[in-house]
Design goal:
The structure is a homodimer. Chain A is mainly alpha-helical. Chain A contains 5 helices and 2 strands, in the order ααααββα. Chain A has a single domain, classed as Arc Repressor Mutant, subunit A. The N and C termini of chain A lie far apart (about 65 Å). Chain A binds a DNA duplex through helix 4.
Chain lengths: ~110, ~110
DNA sequence: TATTTGCGAAACCAATAGGTTGCATTTATA
DNA sequence: TATAAATGCAACCTATTGGTTTCGCAAATA
């Protein structure tokens, strides 16, 4: 099934994983210690994150280090940028209104 | 059940709805015409968007206009900002590497 | 007033999500 | 070499999701 970045970040545990491995690469075992779930559950999350290329793996002996693919996060940013324009415009309009009030008060 | 902005934007139809009502407020019927689903399904999506305050309603007679609460989108932006710092830093480091290569070649 | 229109809510349903436990496999270690 | 550790994968289970159809209600309209 085709995974999607937005669906990937929908789950709070996955967002937490992303937050952790953004700092430094971590193994599934190390990650699992941070959550109240089994290692296998964490592995499932990592699989989903890998499928949508938010995460890459690096094998070191019998350990696998997972690291965030920060570039992929830009996809969310890209989608958001459109709305960022809107809220900045809205804010500017509010700013105008406020300065008008200010001016008429003078 | 407590709804979450990230869960709300996970669904592609909901993202499309957000995109539409960002431009101008729309009724459920008008929205439903854009999708391959029933009006009731759209209404369900609107309910979810309303629950997490991504959307506000304005009644006009028997019609209800739904509009995007752009401010709420900032919540996503806020979460993202942390990673934006990282990808900007990484980019700068790459930039340094590149300029070093350039300099040693001179 | 009778009918149509726009809507939300409820009941239902199949598919998916997220968790578990129980393997098998590969690598490190005693 | 035998054992322990780190991991992925499959089978299974329950709750949730996203859709449908049916209904009731309020507002517009004939």
């Amino acid at each position: 099934m085709r995974r999607d970045v937005f669906q990937a970040i929908a789950d709070p545990t996955r967002r937490a994983i992303i937050g952790l491995i953004a700092i430094q690469a971590m193994t599934p075992n190390a990650l699992a210690e941070h959550f109240n779930t089994s290692r296998q559950a964490v592995s499932k999350h990592l699989r989903i994150l890998t499928e949508c290329e938010l995460v890459k793996q690096q094998q070191k002996g019998r350990e696998i280090y997972y690291q965030l693919e920060v570039q992929k996060m830009k996809e969310i940013d890209k989608w958001l940028s459109r709305f960022r324009k809107i809220w900045e415009t809205r804010f500017n309009e509010l700013d105008k209104v406020l300065s008008n009030i200010k001016n008429t008060k003078k």
